[in-house]
């Protein structure tokens, strides 16, 4: 169940990051509300996951998945460039997350 909480936390983290872009400095009300929901949901579900997962694994996984999702959706939704350095950096994040997960077993 903790991993499901962590997945939900990561989804809210991605929502938070993307909605900040749409909020345009908190000048647009609806995206601003979505940003706040993303923050509360992300931290709330992360807190639930941390009841059983070690923080040394859960927090990096949360931020890593949030980063990867934001990079990919920034490309898809916002038309941001997806360069080779970005792709290689994203692969490094995946490798780090996999290593942390393997080390926690």
TrEMBL record:
<dbReference type="GO" id="GO:0005886">
    <property type="term" value="C:plasma membrane"/>
</dbReference>
<dbReference type="GO" id="GO:1990961">
    <property type="term" value="P:xenobiotic detoxification by transmembrane export across the plasma membrane"/>
</dbReference>
<dbReference type="InterPro" id="IPR037185">
    <property type="entry name" value="EmrE-like"/>
</dbReference>
<keyword id="KW-0472">Membrane</keyword>
<keyword id="KW-1003">Cell membrane</keyword>
<keyword id="KW-0813">Transport</keyword>
<dbReference type="Pfam" id="PF00893">
    <property type="entry name" value="Multi_Drug_Res"/>
</dbReference>
<keyword id="KW-1133">Transmembrane helix</keyword>
<protein>
    <recommendedName>
        <fullName>Guanidinium exporter</fullName>
    </recommendedName>
</protein>
<dbReference type="InterPro" id="IPR000390">
    <property type="entry name" value="Small_drug/metabolite_transptr"/>
</dbReference>
<dbReference type="GO" id="GO:0022857">
    <property type="term" value="F:transmembrane transporter activity"/>
</dbReference>
<comment type="similarity">
    <text>Belongs to the drug/metabolite transporter (DMT) superfamily. Small multidrug resistance (SMR) (TC 2.A.7.1) family. Gdx/SugE subfamily.</text>
</comment>
<keyword id="KW-0812">Transmembrane</keyword>
<feature type="transmembrane region" description="Helical">
    <location>
        <begin position="33"/>
        <end position="50"/>
    </location>
</feature>
<feature type="transmembrane region" description="Helical">
    <location>
        <begin position="57"/>
        <end position="78"/>
    </location>
</feature>
<dbReference type="InterPro" id="IPR045324">
    <property type="entry name" value="Small_multidrug_res"/>
</dbReference>
